[in-house]
Amino acid sequence: MLTLFILLAAFLVMLVSLSGAVLFLLPQKKLQRFLPLILSLAVGVLLANAFLHLLPDALQHQESHRQLFGWVLAGLLGFYFLERALQHGHPQLPDQAISTASYGKVNLVADGVHNFIDGVLIAGSFLVDPLLGVTTTVAILIHEIPQEIADVAVLLHAGFSRKKALLYNLLSASACVLGAVATLTISHWLTPNLNILLAITAGAFIYLASADLMPLLRKNVEQPLWLHGLMMGLGVLLMLVLIGPEASHQH
């Protein structure tokens, strides 16, 4: 019965990826106009997730801070080379199209790892205490909403169609179920190494926000700079507010 609850909780978190469909309520022209601002929101969400959520969680379970930040560096460099490899796989495309397609795929991989970690956290907390499992699931459900909306915005800007953006984001979110299943089967290995996965994902989010999205925003001159700054700040504030309940449950 406990296994059923764990899988159900992971499945619910996976379905949150569909919240990105809220962007489709906007007409196509308005969506294209506001997409750079939504990307600014995504930058704030990604960086806040890395620095205020993933890294503090990882630091709680890592004695050597130097080693932990080494894994962050590994994540950052690893996703750089992953993106270069994805670019190399499409030599027939013009440079701009290559870059566009590749950072969308990098976002899917990074978010897939993040969702896998969520599945591990959900299953692990249920195994410790079912009530802790429920509260952890609720906290993850809440803070995943802005993350998933941001992810769909990144994919749309990367050239994915609306249908493909939602479908691929759902597939990436299905890693949450995989994380839960993996914890149920190999928890003796996975749980002690969770801090490494957290650090690598933080590095991936930092890379995606600073190396891919920020340069795109620098090219945008339609909206004033202060408005983009406001949207980034809103992204950080959203994560601060939504991470709060999860942090309180962990302490």
Give me the secondary-structure topology:
Elements: H1 2-15, H2 28-60, H3 65-88, H4 95-128, H5 130-157, H6 162-173, H7 175-190, H8 194-218, H9 225-250
Helix pairs in contact: 1-4, 1-5, 1-7, 2-5, 2-8, 2-9, 3-4, 3-8, 4-5, 4-6, 4-7, 4-8, 5-6, 5-9
Protein name: ZIP family metal transporter
InterPro entries: ZIP (IPR003689)
Keywords: Membrane, Transmembrane, Transmembrane helix
Question: What would your notes on this structure say?
Answer:
With 251 residues, this protein is mainly alpha-helical. It has one domain (37-89, 98-243). It has helices at 2-15, 28-60, 65-88, 95-128, 130-157, 162-173, 175-190, 194-218, 225-250. The longest helix has 34 residues, at 95-128. It is globular, with a radius of gyration of 18 Å.
Q: How many helices does DSSP assign?
A: 9
Number of domains: 1
Q: Count of DSSP E strands?
A: 0
SS class: mainly alpha
Straight-line N-to-C gap: 27 Å
Sketch the topology as an H/E string, one letter per element.
Answer: HHHHHHHHH
Q: Give the proportion of residues in helices.
A: over 70%
Which whole number gives the mean pLDDT?
84
Stretches with pLDDT under 50, minimum 5 residues? 90-98
Main β-sheet description: none
Shape: globular
Strand content: under 5%
Provide the gyration radius in Å.
Answer: 18 Å
Write a compact overview of the structure shown:
With 251 residues, this protein is mainly α. Helix content is 84%, strand content 0%.
